[in-house]
Amino acid sequence: MTGNTRDMADSVVEGLLEHFVAVEVKEVTDASAADLDVYDNLLFGVYTWGDGDLPDEFLDFYDDLQAKDLSGKRAAVFGCGDTAYRYFAVAGDILQECLENRGALVLQRTVKVDGCPGRQELEACKRLGAEFAAFIKQGAGA
User: Fold this and answer.
1) Intervals of the chain under pLDDT 50
2) How far apart are CA 62 and CA 83, in angstroms?
3) What domains sit in the chain, N to C, each tagged with a CATH number?
């Protein structure tokens, strides 16, 4: 809605590309859980809506994700929220737990941003991309 998660994603992609990882970016509204079958590595950006909810546009995807076997896949999550609410950026935590429950090996490092990401937060996202690149190469034996 605000572009904050997209800005974060752009920085994560930078970190991945700097480490020679091919990237395909999809908006959740243009994706389905079935699309995940063709990928070995999954990186999700999600913002938290209201008092700790997934955004409406993520709900169908999330429901379908509940039935996926993600064994052998590596994943990571990042997102933003608003500390004015009781639960800060927990949509990412909800998604991370789902990925783990579906069998994915999830990078335990994440980036959570309060509102609009600034220079430091975008650098943290870029580092997350670099760390995810190392994480997936580790799984590939590289």
Assistant:
1) none
2) 24
3) 4-139 (3.40.50.360)
